[in-house]
Hints:
The structure holds three protein chains of three kinds.
Chain A (H helix, E strand, L loop, with lengths): L1 H6 L8 E5 L11 E7 L2 E8 L7 H6 L3 H9 L6 H16 L5 H30 L2 H22 L8 E2 L2 E2 L7 H22 L4 H7 L7 H6 L4 H5 L7 H4 L20 H25 L18 E9 L2 E9 L5 E7 L1 H13 L4 H11 L3 H5 L1
Antiparallel strand pairs in A: 1-2, 2-3, 4-5, 6-7, 7-8
Helix pairs in contact in A: 3-4, 4-5, 5-6, 5-12, 5-14, 6-7, 7-12, 13-14
Chain B lengths: L1 H40 L15 H11 L10 H17 L13 H7 L10 H9 L1 H4 L9 H22 L3 H32 L4 H10 L4 H4 L1 H14 L11 H4 L9 H26 L21 H20 L7 H30 L1
Helix pairs in contact in B: 1-2, 1-13, 1-14, 2-13, 3-7, 3-13, 4-5, 7-8, 8-11, 8-15, 11-13, 11-15, 13-14
Chain C lengths: L1 H7 L2 H14 L23 E3 L15 H5 L5 E7 L6 E9 L8 H5 L5 E3 L14 E2 L1 H6 L13
Antiparallel strand pairs in C: 1-4, 2-3, 3-5
Amino acid sequence: MKTTVEESTVLDAKVLELNMGPQHPSTHGVLRVKLKLDGERVLDAECIIGYLHRGVEKISENRSYIKCVPYYDRTDYIAAVSNVYGYLLGVEAMMQIEVPKRAQYIRIMMTEFSRISSHLLWLATHAIDIGAMTVFLYCFREREEILKLFEALFGARLTTHAFRVGGLWKDLPAGFEEAARKFIDEFPERVDEYEQLLTKNRIWMARTQGIGVISGKEAIEWGLTGPVLRGSGMKHDVRKDRPYGGYEEFDFDVPVGENGDTYDRYLVRLEEMHQSRRIIQQVLDRLPDGPVRGKAPKIVKPPVGEYYSGIDGPRGELGYYIVSDGSAQPFRVRIRPPTFISLQVLRRLVRGHLMADVIAIIGTLDIVLGEVDR
Amino acid sequence: MIEILLIYAIIPLIKIAVIVLFLSGAIAYLTLLERKLIAHIQVRLGPMRVGWHGLLQPIADGLKFLLKEDIVPAKADALIFTIAPAISLLPAFLVFAVVPFGPPDMLKDFLSWILGWFPFLNLDPETIARIAENSIASGGYVTDINIAVLFVLSVSSVGILGIILGGWASNSKFPLLGALRSSAQMVSYEVALGFAIIGVLLVAGSLSLVEIVQNQQQEQIWYVFVQPVAFVLFFICGLAETNRLPFDLPEAETELVGGFHTEYSGFRFSLFFLAEYANMIAVSAIGVILFLGGWLRPFPNSDWLSFLDFIPGVLWFLGKVFMFLYIFIWLRGTLPRFRFDQLMQYGWKIFLPVALGNVVVTAAVLLAFL
Amino acid sequence: MMDFLRRIFFVDILKGLALTFRYTYRKVYTEQYPLEKPKLAGRYRGAPRLNNDPVTGETLCIACDLCAEICPEDLIVVGSQRDPESRKKVLTHYTFDTSRCLFCGLCQEVCPTNAIELTQDFELAAYDRRSMVWDRKQLEKGWDRIHFGKDYHK
């Protein structure tokens, strides 16, 4: 592959090597992409990561199971709630802790809120990368409402430390349900606004259709999951395939795209927000009474063994592979970060496109560098 | 002697000074308008801290630019790097030499009133009247040349040189890409822009901006109603010429990190910035003159709207320019950005043929019916 | 045909413009932050505070060291001394390093007497790192914000 790069410039010109990042407004953090350009055409791209590496997995080996939790907020800081959820599901399964129904429902609701907020942030940044800066602030407005809900329930907006082993920290605060209902009632209108600004807009369509196309088969070969895979027409969703935490009790559809391009992934994510809203609606309608924290021992010591807990995070399958040696600290926690895996495909997707498309493709992969580098 | 001096030197010089000062202020407050308007589009407030609702913000920004360290990158071509912003700014101002803000007798009353206030000039009433009659002194413009449209087109394309040179002299990759983009963009859109204007010229039969407006007055209609296609084309190409969204590829913060001015900071950056906004005003002014009847009210010379005549022409002109600028900013708050090749495709495959077709149809209609 | 007409009359773009125009003259959403303070939820975890008994004024801390144990960052140091008469542990000093705090709230969760509490104060910037390590005196007083000039914190 590498040998052909030099030959393929149109005018037999020298290849322009351009470092996009680590300080670049559209690499969503500190991703560095080394582009080889022929004029504006991308011949090759190399991702250089690790600028945000904090060694979360290693830190986990030196903390007890409870103390690890706040660190997972900080891997994928855009969807902190889902991260904690995935890890705790694993720990609880190893310990065989029963989580009360009410806590389960609230967890699902908050995870779906987190999915919406993550998708909103994705849409905001994706749109501003392509130049539509107003969508950015409209999305942030809705996200702000979700963050207020997080603040009311969890006590923090971004790094929420959302759940505890065996359930929740505290029950829903007064007025939470009304606020949540108000949000989901208004939300479809707001999504319609984004659609009005983008979906049929000729510039948006020209910028996203046919960009970064990947077939479903190939997407599976690359190990892609989540909206990136679903945009290619593969109906894969951990919530449906291996239901966890009570998801089997709720009705929702898994939207899929057809062409596997940036535009389809955009539509898939918009529809996912609607589906998340549906789940939240059902949770609010059927929320049972009861305790929110099950019986959990003060010191969490899972039996010797290994456990893989995979959930469907906003960006794809988020997995925690926990190895316990019977002590109070995990022997090893391996995180399967969805965006680390989907970032690999960037090189394959951008080849032959123009430089402006690199931005669009980075945006559509919805990477979070905190999670890529961990 | 004094009369000639007044007509040909002193009064034009004062007019130039007034226009330059006014323009600088207008540019400064255009930036504020843009920030405020986009902020309100995006349900926020924009600058609020300097002055009432940020009214002094442009002044604070200007001061900040002046006080910043003047950085020339080590590997840059220092000479070209230094003069490039000026090359880009000067033509933007030069365009206003031929822009008529008002009718040829705009300053007549004013001149005959104010010249009496200077006893040391020893002017008798007749001379004052003669000076006030002379359209060089009393016109609402610096000069009215008979090839004004050509002048505008040629001068404004010099401004692009500043951008190209600035990007090239920075000796950095992002600015270079920005400069290349801008040169390609300007070249292709200037063609379509020129052909869009030709449609108007055919109808007006003159290259003088003042005469174009006067012809609109005679025909009692703005040319936007005669040449709607040309107007739309002019507007779109004007956006591209001034590097505004959706055609702001040479800058494209999210792709090229600012494009041609990535390496510029402080005062030099502010010159580029001023040039962009001056160009915006220039394009709007030309558009208003060519299509929206310059200083004329809607349906000029027709009686049923004559109650609008109490508003002086210059206000009509500025109001229409403001409307243009408002739309420019409004578009920026709404649209995403094109990609480079798509921009080229639109330019060469759609706008240019349509503009050519417009010229042909206009010419044919003129030949057949007039 | 309809589609073509829509394209040449820029219907898609005009729709977007209509939306942004509607928003231009609506009420803004943002807060003017330093002038307008956000109302934080009661559970918000911000600056730490070491509570005193409101009646006696004595510290509620019983120096049990649970907070220091649970803290993931080990940033709490509890110093205690055994009172020779009552055989009770007495708090001698307590430091809390806010610069390393994750604000996870585990300390206030395990505290049996609600002595350590994360409050709703959130403006924790300081001029140097040393002053971000709070001692018992500052923890008991609660956070007093840095004042940036007159009228800033009305």
